[in-house]
Specification:
Largest sheet: 5 strands, parallel
Distance between the termini: 62 Å
Strand content: 5-15%
Number of helices: 13
Helix content: 25-40%
Low-confidence stretches: 140-147
Mean pLDDT: 88
Structural class: alpha/beta
Number of strands: 9
């Protein structure tokens, strides 16, 4: 019995320690995908917003137009959502997380295109300064970082990237346990008027929202006052970013700001600050802009997942179509 329990707890420990192992378990259906009903449902467990995240049709490849595309993006363009074949005419495709610092060598025989993609709620943070996280290098090899510490010092100071949330996903994310979570969430909401602190409901209670952009104020909020001077500063930093990457070797540089879910379905929660439109319409803006905000507003289809803060297949396709139209 002791070896059985030791094996079980070792398995749980390793799952919490290794993100790759936890992902492998999910991808191979050993454990249920904790995000299969969306990130907002995962936090709230409100049954009325429980719906499987849409599985979009696989994109088709297209003939090459000698384009090398680089995307610096957040979760909207991560591997599970966007692939090379979504775009027309690519020879190469590379995508990096927007907050990471990355080094890259450009192939000057290609038409090099850079897209900086960010969700609306993080624009003010990401362009508080010119964005220069992607570093273009001339030599073939990425520069090595010199290690001055001894192996013993490194081992002593190493922090294990342990995540107890993976234990909850492993043990309690099955549909059976979700029944109990939904009952608890319903009681907290209806009797005590409480929701998970990371989510909010729209006024008509038809939409589940991410608290970060739906809260009344704060730098990430749709309703926080943004002065004209701050808009001018953001635009200035976008222009510096544009010049920086054009000089670094990119033939074209685009900015794409993805609207918050709140910005489309719950602007009645406060006074919407119209951040995307104000940046996009500024007469001094030099960087090319891939506009999906207006296309989203004109659409009569649901464009975001019921239980998630990200777009559904229809919303993603609008963005992909706009990118392809600009390239």
């Amino acid at each position: 019995m002791k070896y059985i329990f030791l094996s079980i707890f070792a398995f749980l420990w390793f799952t919490g320690f290794s993100e790759n192992f936890a992902r492998w378990l999910s991808e191979n259906n050993v454990t249920p995908n904790d995000y299969r009903y969306g990130d907002l449902y995962r936090m709230s467990n409100l049954a009325q917003f429980k719906a499987p995240v849409e599985q979009c049709e696989a994109p088709q490849s297209s003939p090459s137009r000698n384009i090398a595309l680089v995307i610096l993006g957040d979760s909207f363009t991560e591997k599970e959502r966007i692939e090379k074949n979504h775009f027309k005419g690519l020879v190469t495709y590379q995508r990096f997380f927007i907050s990471d610092t990355t080094q890259l060598k450009l192939d000057k025989s290609r038409r090099n295109i850079l897209i900086i993609e960010t969700v609306e709620r993080h624009v003010r943070e990401r362009f508080a300064l010119p964005y220069k996280n992607l570093q273009i290098i001339d030599n073939e090899a990425v520069k090595e970082i010199k290690i001055s510490k001894t192996v013993f010092q490194i081992a002593l100071n190493y922090e294990v990237p342990y995540n107890t949330e993976r234990h909850e996903a492993l043990l309690f994310s099955s549909d059976f346990f979700l029944i109990f979570k939904e009952c608890k969430a319903w009681l907290n909401w209806k009797i005590f008027g409480r929701l998970d602190k990371k989510v909010l409901l729209s006024k008509d209670q038809k939409h589940l929202l991410y608290e970060l952009d739906a809260q009344p104020s704060g730098i990430n909020s749709c309703f926080d006052n943004v002065s004209e001077s701050e808009i001018k500063t953001i635009v200035q930093h976008i222009n510096i970013t544009n010049d920086f990457y054009r000089k670094a070797g990119f033939d074209e540089v685009y900015l794409s700001i993805i609207p918050n879910k709140t910005s489309l379905v719950a602007t009645d929660l406060g006074k919407y600050n119209h951040l995307i439109e104000r940046i996009q319409q500024d007469s001094l803006l030099k960087m090319h802009f891939i506009d999906v905000h207006n296309a989203f507003k004109k659409s009569d289809k649901p464009l975001y997942e019921i239980g998630d803060s990200h777009w559904n297949c229809a919303g993603k396709q609008i963005w992909v179509d706009n990118v392809n139209a600009n390239m």
